[in-house]
Write a structure and sequence with these properties.
By secondary structure, the chain is mainly α. The chain has a domain at 20-48. The chain contains two helices and no strands. The chain has helices at 3-11, 21-48. The model has no long low-confidence stretch (mean pLDDT 79).
């Protein structure tokens, strides 16, 4: 190879299109933290909703004759 070919290869602009591994890990961490934050906010909003609850205790007395023991 001549000096000019080596110089041309060295001086030619090359765009780096691949993402480095550190950027990849940072993006994954950001996505996971955003998803966790969204889940946290949804849980807080659901907790604030006042769902209806029964006002009296529900009790049903089951007679002993309905129970069967298996040996």
């Amino acid at each position: 190879m001549s000096y000019f070919e080596i110089n041309k290869r060295y001086m030619q602009f090359r765009k780096k299109t691949s993402i480095g591994e550190s950027n990849f890990l940072i993006k994954i961490l950001i996505r996971v933290s955003v998803i966790c934050f969204i889940i946290f906010v949804v849980l807080m909003l659901v907790d604030r909703i006042n769902f209806p609850a029964p006002k009296k205790n529900i009790e049903k007395i089951i007679p002993n004759e309905n129970f069967k023991t298996i040996n």
